[in-house]
Amino acid sequence: MRLLAEFGCDDIAKVYVLGLRGDDARYAVEVTESVQPPIPRRKKWVVIVSTLFGCPVGCPMCDAGGAYRGKLTADEMLAQIHFVVRRRFASNTVPVEKFKIQFARMGEPAFNPAVISVLQRLPQELNAPGLIPSVSTVAPRGCERFFDRLLEVKERLYAGGRFQLQFSIHTTDEALRERLIPVRKWSFAEIGAFGRRWWRKGDRKITLNFAAEKNSPIAPDILLKHFDPEIFLIKLTPLNPTESVQKNRLVSLVDPQRPESASPLVSRLSEAGYDVILSIGETAENRIGSNCGQYITIWRREGCRIRDYAKQQSPHPL
After folding, report:
1. Is the peptide bond before 129 cis (omega within 30 degrees of 0)?
2. How many Å separate Cα 315 from the centre of its chain?
3. pLDDT for 50-108, tens place per residue?
4. What's the CATH fold of domain 2-302?
5. Span 199-221, pLDDT tens digits
6. Structure pTM?
C-alpha cells in the first residue's frame, strides 16, 4: 500500500488517496478521517473507508461511479483502517469514546461480501472499546445474503447499540428515486420489513438518509406507511458540491449556509413522530473535500501530489 496524496487539516478532516495494488492508478481508493469541532478526537472520531474500486451504481450526485474496477479484499479494507489509526495512535489501541468506522466512501458495501469478514475481524484487529461500525447502503436487490449475514454479525458482535445501519433513499418519490439511485433496489416496503427484523431493544435506530435534491419530495405520510418511527430516524444532509452535482445541475434542498431553510421540513417530520438529524458539517470541509465526493477523479486527471493544507486552503478549484 502506498500513500499517493493527502488533503485537509488535522483539526477538521483529512482525505488520503491510497494505492492498494502497486502503481496502477485504477486501484487507488480514498479513506477519510474527521472530527467534529469543538468535540475533541478522544470523544469522537470518524473513519470512512472504501469497499470498491469505484462504483457501478452511478448516482448523479456522486463522483465515485464510472470507473468501477472491482471489489477490495478484506485485507485491503483493514489496511485503510490501520493506516489511519497508526497515524494517530502508536499501537492498535484507540482510546476514543465514540470511534465510528463507516463503510461508505467509495462503493456500495452490499456489493462486497468481504465487508462481513472485516466486521468479524475488527474486534481482534483493534483494541477499541468505543468502536461503532456503520454500513451505509442503497439496499441493492440481489444482496439479500449480505444483509442476512450483516444482521447475524450485528447480533453476535455489536449488539446493544454498537452498530449503525443507514439506508440512503433521498426522496419518497419512487420515480425520482430511480433517477437518483439508478440500480435495482429494495422497495420501501422491503426496507421497512428488514428494519423490523434488524431492530432490537437497545439498538440504535436505523437511519434513513436523505441527501435531498430541491425538486425531490420527502413526504411524511409515505414514510409512515413503511418506516416505524420507533425503529427508523431521519437524517437530512446537503448535497455535497461534487463535480457530478454540478454537471447534473442538482440543487440541494438543504442549504448549508442557511440551515433554517430546512426548518419547515424538519417540523413536518418531527410532527410525524420521527427523530430528525439535520447533518451539516463544517463549511471548511467543502474546501478540504472530505465531504464533497471523490478525489480519485481529480487526482487521476491532474496528477495531484501531496499538498500542505496550511499552505494551500483548497486542493482544487471549487
Report:
1. no
2. 22
3. 999 988 888 877 777 667 889 999 999 999 999 999 999 988 899 999 999 999 989 99
4. TIM Barrel (3.20.20)
5. 999 999 999 999 888 888 999 99
6. 0.89
Residues 6+ apart with CB under 8 A from 317: none
Contact predicate 112/73, CB 8 Å:
no
Asked if 233 and 206 touch (Cβ cutoff 8 Å), the reply is yes
Residues contacting residue 38 through CB under 8 Å, at least 6 positions apart = none
The Cα–Cα gap between 192 and 43 comes to 32
Give the whole-angstrom CA distance, residue 96 versus residue 267. 34
Encode pLDDT of 97-154 as tens digits: 999 999 998 999 999 999 999 999 999 999 999 999 999 999 999 999 999 999 999 9
Q: Tell whether the torsion through CA atoms of 270, 238, 253 and 103 is positive or negative.
A: negative
At position 192, the amino acid (one-letter code) is: G
Q: Residue 133: in which H helix or E strand, if any?
A: strand 131-137
Domain ranges of the chain: 2-302
Integer Cα distance of 107 and 101 in angstroms: 15
Q: Do residues 235 and 206 lie in contact, with contact meaning Cβ atoms separated by under 8 Å?
A: no
Radius of gyration of the CA atoms of the chain, in A: 19
Give the full edge-to-edge strand order of the sheet including 44-49.
2-9, 13-19, 28-34, 44-49, 98-103, 131-137, 164-168, 206-211, 232-237, 276-278
- CA–CA dist 228, 274 (Å, integer): 8
